[in-house]
User: Fold this.
Amino acid sequence: MGRTYSDAITALNTLQTNSAVIESLRKSRKTLNAQAIPEMIEWCRRAGYEPADFDKLNPVHIAGTKGKGSTSAFVSSILTQFLPSPAQPNPLFHKIGLYTSPHLRFVRERIRINNEPLSEELFAKYFFEVWDKLEESARTKGEPTDKTAKPSYFRFLTLMAFHTYIREEVDTAVIECGVGGEYDSTNIILHPSVTGITSLGIDHVQILGNTIEEIAWHKAGIMKEGVPAFTVPQLPAAQAVLEDRAKQKSVDLHTVHENPFVAAIELGLEAPFQRSNASLAVKLAMTYLRSHHGAELGSNPLQKFVRGLERVRWPGRCETRREDGIAWHIDAGHTLESIKLAASWFAGHISPSPQVKSTSTTEAASKRKTRVLLFNQQTRDAPALARMLHSTLAAALKDEQPFTHVVFCTNVTFKDEGYRPDLVSINTDRQKVEALEVQMGLRDAWKELDGGTGEPEVKGSIEEAVEWVRGLKAREGEEEDMLVLVTGSSHLVGGFLEVLESREGA
Assistant:
């Protein structure tokens, strides 16, 4: 095996779990959960670590259903304002780690230092250091050194992230939970500096349960005795569970409301709902700074907070890109709650359509501005997400036909080349993807919702969907930017950005 970044990604992809295994694991979630943390601790030991070793990372640990990635990015952006600079001759930090998931275009996006993804060289270096340690441990124990000597995909990356941050001697690491909290791979952290829980909703029901109370119980698992914890306003049932678990753990749990200080800032992430995430991030960052660097903060640290909130960048989340008369509105929302927020954000960029009195659907559509939906969700209840998107936009725009055109596609990146290696996913049913089964179902569901849109397009790859939209723009010939919403899946958004940027780099 070679030792390049490409070799690392090829090896990493062998640790993915296929769709059949995932289905069986979903059916036995209690057994899986009970084993998760002990197994992760064992993998750490095989790599040469004890969980207590990660205390030196001074972790900021963040869980939640909506906004945990954005909140983590806000915290990291704030803390990096205290790095060395001409205006900061005596910096508080030299390196800030940020671990998030999933990635969009490149796996190395998940493991960042000072807000930048690891270079390909560093990723390969630390990947194979962990890989080799695990194989050596297996040999020592007389076990095979095949894929059974390594943890699953997400566990391996979590272990690799901790290893990277220790080797790079980061001052603190902002760690986003993957799924849940109590049994999440990141929850081997023993003594975080502070913990945060973002807005809660229904998601990952096969693993976490199908009630808000069950989900809140899991998320509260990151709280640790004696460590300050913060959350945003929750549904009463979820709040009650969080407070109960905080008492059990001897934790002071505080609810953070939207901060007027934040409301006055032009955030780097533009959607209105990001103000709640930013307010929580401010509290987490300030709590961390005061506990570790209180005497060194200076007289006006809030100036640095403002810069951090303004300069944060989080691709694929409430992001707008423009090309050749098309305004692509991009959001990786993939739950009912996040799709609703994405729809509201998109609606904020357009004016309600005029009330057109017409005797035919065709005549009415001809008088409306072109708006396009590019959508996919391969593994969840895709029709339910599409219905939420339609109903939210229809209400916001006072228009029962919020889109003039709709295109559904798979998450396959390119028509001829297939998936980019970083975007390969074997946890979906290949036969269903090739048969466009999900996309055909979405087409039928949308026709029931909105017969006036016309026949939705179905494409076998993201590249074909993007080219269809570009062709539509060329045919329509409108002077104004054509508005397109790209949403439904982080896998879709990652592949979409790859298609977009591969053209820009051509």
Remarks:
- Confidence is low (pLDDT under 50) at residues 355-366.
- The radius of gyration is 23 Å.
- The first helix runs from residue 5 to 13.
